[in-house]
Amino acid sequence: MTTLPGQATAAVDGPSPADPLELAAAWLPADGSAPGPTMTLSTIGLDGYPSARTVLLSRFDGQRLHFHTDTRSRKAAELAAAPRACVTIVWPEAARQLVVTGDVAPVTDREARLAYSARTRYLQVLAWVNDTDLAAETAAARRQRWAAFDAERGERPLEPPTTWGGYAVTPRRMLFWRGATDGPSNRLAYERRSDGSWRLEAWPG
After folding, report:
1. Which residue ranges form the domains of the chain, and what is each CATH number?
2. What is the reported pTM?
3. Quick one: pLDDT band at residue 34, thresholds 50, 70, 90?
């Protein structure tokens, strides 16, 4: 079995914990480490159709999955209208997939600032310049604006723009998929009950 860097060797074909957050903690990077893997964030579009895009998992705090974005974005408007989402994280090299469906709430300003400071310089600059006006420019104009921002700010540490914001997903359903080359794949499906406990079912892969 392939083990991901910094993660325990928890498999869905071994003993299944009663609490899926324990298994998530074994699969996801430890809280406080660098931003985690990319994940597909699916929201309910303003037109009623599903809406999906790729974002970074900023952190998993043991209870919630955090991500950050521009508060002027389409996803921010969709979450304001319907604060529910699904995130999908795939590790092809380890034949694993985690799908989390739940309720979404904004994080504190302090948490959002800490997440910004943990971003690479490239992603910090991107948060400043990557807006609707820039998207409409030619490739050459986009590079020119990027270079102008870099020249103006130099190597000084960047503060997050006022449009920087964060969200956290509190899971209601968690699906852990594990593939195999010598047998069938399978999934563990956890559903949160009204009392906060979890119901577990084994699903075919």
Report:
1. 20-119+160-204 (2.30.110.10)
2. 0.86
3. low
